[in-house]
Every structure is written in structure tokens, then in C-alpha cells.
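Q: Predict the assembly, please.
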Amino acid sequence: MKKNLYFEDVEIGDDIGPIKRSVTDEDVIEFVSVRETEITPSRFTSNEVANSEGMPEAIVPGPMNIALMSQILTDWSDTVCLLKIDVVFRQTVPHNTDLTFSGIVTDKDETGNSTKLECDVVMENSDAVKLVIGTGVIALPNKP
Amino acid sequence: MLLDLHTHSVASDDSRATVEQYIKWVNVLRRKGKPIDGFVLTEHRQFDHDVDYTSLASDDGIVILKGAELDTDTGHFLVYGISEQITENLNFSDVNMSAQNLVDICDTYGGIAIPAHPGRAGIGFAEYLDSGVTGFETVKSVEQLNGSNRPGEGEKAESLIKAKGYLGTGGSDAHIVSAIGICMTSFDKEIKNESDLVQELRHGRFTAVRLES
Amino acid sequence: MTTDEGIVYDRSLLGVETHIGTFELTREMILGFAKSTGETNPRYLGDDNGAGDVVAPPTICNVFVSGVSRPDIKLEFGEIGFFAGQSIECKAEIRPGDVLSASTKLDNVYAKTGRSGKMVFAVWETQFRNQDDVTVALVTESFVRRNKNR
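A: Predicted assembly structure:
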């Protein structure tokens, strides 16, 4: 994680990441367990249930995907304040798959009225297929 | 002249890019030495005759044109040169509209309809032709390069083009800002408006190009 | 978007706000959510022992997405549903012990086609407020129904 990134340090076109990670079966169970004390088999936790619903294998829950997407920005620097994250799920995300998370700065408030930036965020699989795309709005502090 | 013939703004339900942001990004691409002269907004299942990007476009020396991407019974089509007669004769929001009728209406009223991402599963022209759909004698071009294709979809488009002798256009199918310009269409002549675009597409004076990353 | 002609659902729900739940956010939920999503920022994890001041990660409201009783729009289409997209606008920090109240309204229903065939989307606007009646998050959620892949 970059520490102490300031608004003045960033330009439109700056890359964020990439970060490579995968979501394991255990991660998904842990995520689902936050709310459910007893895990019932679902498309998220069971390959059999996923198969019955027309999917080849269990998938990562959408709410978990958006959390991972938001981390593209919040992990960029301790100074990032995430104001908004907005994603479209274009394809289901399987467990235990190599995923690449990346972002790029696409807009910067140059009016002087705020220290907001807008970024594209993308989750891709190893075939460079974009599974989740979106945008994030963040604020960075001014340099002291 | 290089134009991205397939982009979506926030007017499309699944895009997160504003036109203003696309303009800023085109300038970023240009500063990086990547040529791009403009783009066509091909919003899903709609067309707004009233929205006017002329002043935005001229401020930055970027050509911004309007089209649409429509859902049909034979896959998705990109439509350019959309006149009021075309929107009066078609229900753009009908996801099952007759593609043959779409092509015929465009041919009649000065527009042009080109199969989008023809190699794509479920909504690609190639699959429908493979299943026995006939007609479409006036279709001469398809979208050869699409920046959002998945593995195999580009290859299927190329096979179709080779088999039918189609010409090919290029477009990014951008739904986020940074995707614009990934694939484009190179035109021999200058294009200033939708009429010019339709004319050049009909005359076949273009090739599909992919921007080097 | 397309018009909703031909899509059969309960149109009387469009724009109608409904309270869908009240949720207490515990420290354990915050730490569990943060840990399960691989958070590394100490703001969300506390110190090495999980102690100390923590705030909830920005997408914490999603802990309450499943199991929420949204009104049934009685959509007559599709064999299976998926979460299609979401936007979360963070309006205020969420802390352990906060009690969040959620209300939602149906914003739009529309059809489109894609690689999976015909799909119908239902879009909901949801607001989370805390015990002090402060809006902490504005969430737009899109759910899609389609037929199963064969």
C-alpha cells in the first residue's frame, strides 16, 4: 500500500495496482458466516447447488466482489477516502481463480472546489476477461 | 481519420462513463501519442435526437457523433445515421425487433445498421446465420473488432467475415472511461457528421484497427 | 433502457418506499467482514489483537443484502436471479454498535439481451440510516432474472 498519497500527487491516467489475488472456498464461507450462523448449501458454497442452477461451479457472492473492488482504491493509500463505488457484474466470479484487480484515474476535480478523483476499477480473470467493471469516487487530502 | 464506432455513456444502463469524461480521456490518449479523432455514442436501445455534443466536441477538436446499439431477433446491431423517420418506424426499446426490418428501414431512410460483435454468443449475427437465418443481402459490413470480446468471439467474427466477404468496423464497446479507443475504425476521408459516417460506411472506405497498448 | 411493456410485474411498487429491516452492526461483524474480504487497512481491523478503534469498511451494508425482505415484485420471467450491479455512496462512517435502518424503493424494471439471452433487471434504491437518523449509505442495487444456462 502506498502511504501518504496526496491529491497533488495524482494525475489523470495514473495506474492503480494491479493486485493479483484469488478468493478461496474458505474466504467465501467466512464471508457468508458474518450473517448466517448456519451455512446452508447455496450457489456460493456448494458446487452441486451451483451446477443445479446452470453454473459450472460455486461463485463468489456479489457483495463480496464489490468489497474486493473497493479495496483497489482503499488499499492504494492510507489517505484514500472512498466516497462511492459503483460496479456492474458482467460475469460470475468462480472460487480459486487467479484474478487481477486494477484501476486507473480517469477524472480529477480541477476546479479547486474539492479533492475528489474518479477512477475506473476492473476485475479480470487470467484470460483478460473483465468479470466486474466499475468506477469509484475517492477523496485525497491536500499536501500539508 | 480514426473513430471509435461503439461506445456507451451513462445513458446506457450498464455504462459508468460520462461524455465529458470520455473527452478528457481522449485528450489523455492524445498526450500519450495515441491517435483518436473521435467517437460515436451507441447507447443501448434508445436514441435522443435532441442531445447535442457539438460544442463539447469542438472545444477539444474531437468528433462526437450519435448512434445506437439495438437488440433484435438476430443479435445486436449498431445503427448510424438515425433520422427521425427511422425512430418513427421502429421501437428502439423492443428487444425482439426484426433485424431484417431494422436493416430495411435504415436502408430506406438514410441510415445503416451493422451487426455488432457478430461472434458473440447469444447476441452475435454469426450464430444466427449458422442456425439457418437467411436474408440480409444488403448487409455488407459487420463489427470486426470489438474491445469487449471474450476469447473466441473475435475469431468467430473473423470467420464470418472471411466466409461472407464482409467489410469490418472497429469499436471499443466501452462502458468505462478508460476503455474508449481500444478498437477503432480508420476512415480514408474526413468525417464531420453522421451523414458523412453513413456515406463512408456504405462506400466501404474504412478498416478496423486496434490501438496498441 | 427499454420500456417495461410486455414485462409482467407488480407495477404498483414502482417508487413506493418500504422499510426492509433494522440491523445492529457488531464489532464481530465488522471484523469478520473485513477479514473475510482480505482487508489489510488497520482502520477496519483494529490492532493485531483486533482491539482498538475500528470503523466499518465502506461496503459493509452488503452484510445485510441477503436475507433482506424486499417487496416481491411478482416478476413473471426467468428461472434464476443474480445480483447484477451495485453502487454504494458512503455518506458517513459506520461504527460498531450502530443500528442501521434500511428502506428501499423499486426504481426501474427493464429488459435487455446479452450472452445469456433475454434478461429482466429490477433496480432498487436503498437508504441506510443510523440510530441518530443520519444517512450513512445510499445504495442502488440491480438484480437480474434470466433462464438457466443449458
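Residues 6 and 28 of chain C are 46 Å apart (CA to CA). DSSP finds two helices and five strands in chain C.
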